[in-house]
Amino acid sequence: MSDTLLDVQGLSCPLPVLRANKALRGLPPGALLTVLATDPASQRDFAAFCAETGHALVSASEAGGVYRYVLRKRSEPA
């Protein structure tokens, strides 16, 4: 399955999560979404977002002030 990239660098909370949620709505179940963010609060926000919505946080990393999150869209609506 192809990976979709969402670049939300420079945006502050809650915009990265809101934009990711919108992007996930347009993807098929099981699809991957990679998000690039620069807001340090996004670490907490994406973990909470995935816990609340049922999407999987496949990976989270940081390099040079850029946070990279890989989310897998849940199979069925919560």
Q: What do these coordinates show?
A:
With 78 residues, the chain is an alpha+beta fold. 29% of the residues lie in helices and 33% in strands. It has 2 helices and 4 strands. The protein has a 4-stranded mixed sheet with strand order 1-2-4-3, with helices on one face. Strand 3 (56-63) and strand 4 (66-72) form a beta hairpin. It starts with a strand and ends in a 6-residue tail after the last strand.
Low-confidence stretches: none
The tally of beta strands, per DSSP, is 4
Structural class: alpha+beta
Order of strands, main sheet, comes to 1-2-4-3
| Helical content band | 25-40%
Beta-strand percent range: 25-35%
What's the arrangement of secondary structure elements?
Layout: E1 3-7, H1 15-25, E2 32-37, H2 42-53, E3 56-63, E4 66-72
Structure keywords:
78 residues, alpha+beta, four-stranded mixed β-sheet, 2 helices, 29% helix
Summarize the structure.
This protein has 78 residues and is α+β, with helices and mostly antiparallel strands. 29% of the residues lie in helices and 33% in strands.
